[in-house]
## 1
Amino acid sequence: MTFKIVLATLCTMILCGCPGKSPNQASTVINCMVTNVTDGDTIGCTTPEKKTYIVRLANIDAPEKKQDYGAAAKKHLSDLIYMREVTIKISGQDKYERYLGEVFLGNLNVNKDMVSSGHAWAYQEYLKDDQYIALEDSAKSQKFGFWIAPNPLNPKAFRKSLPN
């Protein structure tokens, strides 16, 4: 009986195009209104059918809220897409069950804009597109965003420095 339930669930997910946790699956594309910007790399949005998504922007890592430039990263992302219609290419889910995706405002890749403007790092640990590294290098050489600081702290290093 359990096998039949699992099989039926999997078939339903495949037929409805629901994104799953597999990083190798084909992308699912959704259109939604951005209703929340949590920080520089996480948003909430709602589809016209009233389905809500929490989306972690793939390939980037923005400063944490309590970190230097965290508020600036959130503001930049908010200024770009808050209460705007976006298209998101969802590629899976993370360990917190947020959807992972690349966000587009028209032809603008918002994830890449966050890196090229110096508001996020290329998240090299999970990177799927090497262009992010070139965008980060360019922002760094031009001292955009947090790169104006002599040694900005990568969010991963910041998180490790926090007490448990």
Note: The chain has a mean pLDDT of 87.
## 2
Amino acid sequence: YKGRFAILETMPLIEDLRRVIIEGGSAIDIKDVSMKHGMISLRRCGLLNAMRGVTTVEEILQTTVGD
């Protein structure tokens, strides 16, 4: 396909997040802490790109899971 691009979910490894991981927190706990500290989810990254005209909202909704 011509014109493909990546949408990325990045998670900063900060002290609060390390603590949750060490204490055995669930995936939901880890995501909650990450989102509070600025993580951008795949869907949100995709929607930002849709707003920029790089892709469509429909494509993002088909290829990502809700937050």
Note: The helical segments are 15-22, 27-36, 42-51, 57-63.
## 3
Amino acid sequence: MNILTKEQILEAQDMTIEKVDVSKWWGEPVFVRALSGAERDEFEQESLEAPVDIGDTPDDAKRKVNMRNFRARLAVKTICDESGTRLFTDAEADALGAKNAKPLDLIFDVAQRLSGFRKEDVDELTKN
């Protein structure tokens, strides 16, 4: 049985990029890429607010999901050029969030699928 080496894993070209038709924006498509592991962790961390203590034990603390500009915050991390280079910075999420919701939904859905977000992941992020 062959087993991947560290070098093979680190050299693997595994960032998936997909063209998305967002005709509401000038009739042209955009490219959307998967998040890296670190980017996904960062997005999930940004999406959780600090726990609120509601009881006597640490288990009594509840976390709320920060849904503010949720789609645009994921979109700015994943909209890219054909080579996978991001077009937006995180600071531009508010500006992108002011755009039509339909193209943002399309981008969000593709970014979510490419980055491996599953229903279970969202449930885990939002539990409690």
Note: Strands lie at 17-21, 29-33, 79-80.
## 4
Amino acid sequence: MNCVDMRARLRAAERLVGVFVNLPAPGLVELLASAGVDFVVIDCEHGLLNPESVGGLIRAAGASGIGAMIRVPAGEPAAIQRYVDAGA
């Protein structure tokens, strides 16, 4: 599911289930997708994640058909850009 699909489902008042992930484990994202979650929030504010480790999580979410959102550690444009460059 991409962001457009998530927005459309939210506008239609559908219930979406998501989980915060703060470990650099793409297999965990795939497992969550197979358990039926609709999206993951990749939490870079708290945990072990950084721009270098989120790429695999984003790819795992996309390949599994679920959405992915990134929670960045700071709201500065330079910090956000590092995660955008990683694939967010």
Note: The helical segments are 3-11, 26-34, 51-64, 77-85.
